[in-house]
């Protein structure tokens, strides 16, 4: 019987290893497929603005366009397409840096309510111009955390941008900053399309996009949340998601508090 038990274990282990290998191979295949789709899309998207800029530039330098108004229109085209290109290239470089492990993090003590307020103020015009009601709730000062403020801004901007992109009916976004026990949380809530349960883990993977009407209509490459997750983790934080299809989503990032702030009685004892 002992031999039988050993044999049983061996068969079980072999079976487990096979299942593991199969799942791994499947995931790699999926990633390769997404990557190929991404390359096709990005090639098209990089070439289109370049073609517009080249044609507009040619017309101007040939001396074919001399009328002031038309010159301005061509100038606008070149300017807008250049901005689009720059944004796309910045995103690609972000991903390349993440892949190469070359992202530098400069940690310093910050209060997340201040960073969130900054992001709120700088995104307000854009978000409201898209027809959204946009609110922030900080409930006063929160304890210091060690983060790279630029990274936290990038994270929040990405989450807000997504909330705008994936809200087709109710247009509402709330940034909420809370002091939890030993950590500070910032969440971005929308009342948009939500994310199906089976996609919730996958959306943080590179190139993954939820299939659906809106994803087809909305531009994107499935890179934003991969960058976000990487930045959160580089800053020693955590990201979580609660989402219900049609009702909306809440993305929450948390960072550990730098030092336990002194209670007021303790502070009084020290000063008194
Ligand atoms: P992108 O927006 O470029 O596709 P992201 O990595 O930022 O890439 O997001 C991945 C996918 O997750 C999106 O394609 C979308 O399907 C889904 N998603 C992200 N944020 C939201 C949100 N706030 N509401 C609904 N779906 C979202």
Automatic annotation (TrEMBL):
The chain crosses the membrane at residues 4-25. Residues 41-259 form the Histidine kinase domain. It is found in: Cell membrane. This is histidine kinase. It comes from Rhodohalobacter mucosus. The lineage of its organism: Bacteria, Pseudomonadati, Balneolota, Balneolia, Balneolales. The chain holds residues 290 to 561 of 574 of the full protein.
């Amino acid at each position: 019987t002992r031999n039988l038990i050993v044999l049983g274990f061996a068969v079980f282990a072999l079976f487990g290893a096979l299942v593991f290998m199969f799942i791994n191979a499947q995931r790699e295949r999926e990633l390769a497929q997404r990557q190929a789709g991404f390359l096709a899309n990005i090639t098209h998207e990089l070439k289109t603005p370049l073609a517009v800029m080249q044609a507009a530039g040619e017309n101007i330098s040939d001396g074919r366009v001399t009328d002031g108004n038309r010159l301005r229109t061509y100038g606008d085209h070149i300017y807008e397409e250049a901005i689009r290109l720059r944004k796309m290239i910045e995103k690609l470089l972000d991903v390349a840096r993440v892949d190469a492990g070359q992202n530098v993090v400069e940690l310093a003590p910050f209060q997340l309510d201040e960073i969130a307020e900054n992001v709120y103020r700088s995104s307000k015009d854009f978000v409201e111009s898209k027809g959204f009601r946009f609110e922030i709730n900080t409930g006063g000062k929160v304890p210091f955390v060690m983060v790279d403020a630029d990274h936290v801004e990038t994270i929040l901007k990405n989450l807000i941008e997504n909330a705008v992109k994936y809200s087709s009916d109710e247009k509402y976004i709330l940034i909420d900053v809370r002091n939890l026990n030993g950590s500070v949380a910032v969440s971005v809530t929308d009342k948009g399309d939500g994310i199906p349960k089976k996609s919730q883990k996958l959306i943080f993977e590179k190139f993954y996009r939820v299939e659906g009407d809106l994803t087809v209509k909305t531009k994107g490459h499935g890179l934003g949340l991969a960058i976000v997750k990487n930045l959160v983790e580089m800053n020693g934080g955590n990201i979580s998601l609660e989402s219900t299809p049609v009702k909306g989503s809440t993305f929450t990032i948390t960072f550990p508090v730098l030092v336990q702030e002194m209670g007021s009685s303790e502070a009084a004892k020290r000063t008194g």
